[in-house]
Design a protein that fits this description.
The protein has 20 helices and 24 strands. It has 612 residues and is α/β, with parallel strands linked by helices.
């Protein structure tokens, strides 16, 4: 086993040596190795679910791994590489498909690395009856992103790089990413705000391919449209040729990540300047297939039946047209042309509305993870105790009721995503929920009353970075929004939802962080806001955002880009009032669809306008 496993870590021997002793103690040096059935599984199960999630580890199911390995085109003696090898599932599949290849993997977690080494040894015995000495497979315990490690000798020489890289967002892990950037100067050009760790494995893996070599990855599909993945998309389109993208729209591939679209990506490093335009085949599946091997083979050979109900949706695109902008590859040519014409001819949403995220309290309620901030002998609040948010007036403690009775507006009605209904107009709050909305200094008397409520939670609130730096008082909301905007008329939508769900708030509610609110231009009337709300809830906007927007799983995202860039068929008349376009200028068929939908909007609009 130690012939396969190479530990590059510094320091004293640890539990890994104990594992090796157990596994190899009964096997004399040079004797035949016997892999115990279930050894890999027994080791991997020592990593509990939360440990794997915290590290972004989602093991690849073997049927998918076999289908991925089936895409390798390598000669005997060439290397197949995995820079985040996990338990070695992908490399073991590669050995089964092409025993003449040499498997090289890197894994940072020593327990997973040991499982990978066992997996490779067992697979060699399964395939060939012995571990070949002329094909020295290796599993290195180390950081796969390094540029100064033994496996770097294969840069520009690997027949294939397989990967299921760790999924870990920069948001919430800033210190980790700062340290990562400092330790990897060769990757600094690829770092950006709100990136994901898997992006770096794409960048680094691309460097290992020989001309004609393939990169075969399974990841989330979010990088196709994420604003913060522009650098990744540009690098992939410049250094590699995308050949195949397969998206699974519902969960079931990774049990620990049921809400994500899963994406199988195949890229190739070009051998020379292509003689003909390169084509990308994109396939969308409603759910994971029963047989990955058969499906992927059929799709790549163009034998898939496209017309049957439930059949995969297959799209063809010019790969050379892809760049840093989002890759809207799961749309047909007509939809692509429609979307481009709208972007070219219509004004964007940002010309009419400004979007904001709702306020962030920093601590809605007391949770189990807050306990660690208290001394062992301290009195600890009850789990679930309200800090800034209250389910009903009955939850409001007497000291805060006194502040409300004094005429202060620190207690305000709260509007959450779960309260919203499409095209609703809220004249009164739809729920009894309240927010302790502290966005500025208080009177001395009210501050004392407030401290009476918040004092038990002070160890939690003082942990916030802005409090420690002295830029805000410990009792304030973490991220308040303009009170004037919050109490004024505004459109509100969940930040993620299966379809548009815009509502109009006229009740002066505070908007929670799971919502986006949108404010109009000075001089806009309620009629203007209603007209925009009805339009934003239309099938027109849903179609555009589903094809050219961002999504996570089945949830569309309603914030930032591309919501701000959503083309709106709206103009101002001579009086400055908003009106819908009569014609989109995108062809007769699309204009007929537009006019039919507009008639439906008009009925909804006049019905709502009559209420006013």
């Amino acid at each position: 086993m130690s012939a396969i496993l190479v530990d590059l870590r510094d320091g004293e021997p640890d539990a890994l040596d104990g594992w090796l002793g157990v596994l190899e103690g009964a096997v004399a040096e040079g004797a035949e190795y016997s892999a115990e059935p279930g050894a890999v599984e027994s080791i991997v199960t020592r990593l509990d679910t939360q440990t794997r999630r915290d590290g972004g580890i989602y093991p690849t199911p073997r049927p998918l791994a076999d289908a991925m390995a089936g895409q390798i085109e390598g000669r005997d003696g060439e290397v197949v590489l995995d820079l985040s090898a996990g338990a070695g599932t992908l490399l073991a599949s590669a050995i089964r498909r092409a025993p003449g290849l040499r498997a090289v993997g890197v894994e940072l977690n020593p327990t997973m690395a040991l499982a990978a080494a066992i997996n490779l040894a067992a697979t060699r015995l399964e395939v060939g009856g012995a571990i070949p000495q002329d094909l020295p497979d290796r599993i290195y315990i180390g950081d796969g992103l390094r540029a100064d490690a033994p496996w770097c000798e294969w840069e520009g020489r690997a027949a294939a790089v397989l990967g299921n890289p760790p999924y870990l967002r920069e948001k919430g892990h800033r210190e980790f990413f700062d340290d990562l950037k400092a330790r990897h100067p060769h990757l600094q050009a690829y770092f950006c705000a709100r990136m994901d760790l898997q992006y770096l494995f794409f960048h680094r893996s691309a460097s290992f391919l020989r001309p004609g070599g393939k990169l075969v990855f399974v990841t989330s599909a979010y990088w196709l449209s994420a604003t913060h993945a522009r650098v990744l998309r540009r690098d992939l389109s410049e250094r590699l040729a995308p050949e195949f993208l397969l998206r699974v729209e519902t969960g079931g591939i990774f049990a620990d990540a049921p809400g994500q679209h899963t994406l199988l990506s195949i890229f190739r490093r070009a051998e020379a300047a292509p003689a003909a335009p390169r084509r990308l085949r994109a396939v969308s599946l409603a759910k994971a297939p029963a047989d990955w091997d058969v499906l992927v083979g059929a799709i790549l050979s163009s034998e898939i039946e496209r017309e049957n109900a439930g059949a995969p949706r297959v799209f063809e695109h010019a790969a050379d047209e892809l760049g840093a902008d989002l890759w809207s590859v799961f749309s047909d040519d007509q939809t692509m042309q429609w979307g481009q014409a709208l972007k070219d001819n219509l004004p964007p949403l940002r010309d009419f509305l400004s979007d904001r995220q709702g306020f962030v309290s920093g601590a809605d309620r007391f949770t189990a993870r807050h306990r660690k901030f208290y001394a062992a002998d301290a009195e600890i609040p009850a789990k679930g105790a309200p800090i800034f948010l209250f389910e009903s007036p009955e939850e409001v403690p007497p000291e805060l009721a006194k502040i409300a009775a004094s005429g202060s507006t620190v207690l305000r009605p709260l509007l959450r995503a779960r309260h919203l209904t499409p095209n609703a107009i809220y004249y009164t709050p739809p729920s009894e929920e309240l927010a302790l909305y502290i966005d500025g200094p208080l009177s001395v008397e009210n501050e004392a009353l407030l401290a009476e409520h918040l004092q038990p939670f002070r160890p939690v609130l003082e942990r916030r970075r802005e409090v420690q730096s002295g830029t805000m008082p410990w009792y304030r909301l973490h991220w308040p929004r303009s009170r004037a905007e919050q109490v004024a008329p505004k459109l509100v939508v969940p930040r993620r939802a299966p379809k548009p769900c815009f509502a109009l708030d006229l009740a002066g509610q505070m908007i929670s962080s799971d919502c986006t609110y949108l404010v109009g231009q000075p001089g806009d009337t309620l009629e203007d806001l209603i007209r925009l709300m009805v339009l934003l809830n239309s099938a027109y906007c849903e179609r555009y955002l589903r094809n050219f927007g961002k999504s996570k799983g089945k949830q569309l995202e309603f914030y930032s880009e591309p919501l701000r860039g959503l083309p709106l068929p709206v103009m101002r008349d001579e009086k400055g009032r908003l009106r819908w376009f009569d014609n989109l200028g995108v062809g007769d068929t699309e204009n007929d669809v537009w006019r039919a939908e507009r008639r439906r909007w008009e009925a909804v609009f006049w019905n709502l306008g009559g209420v006013l």
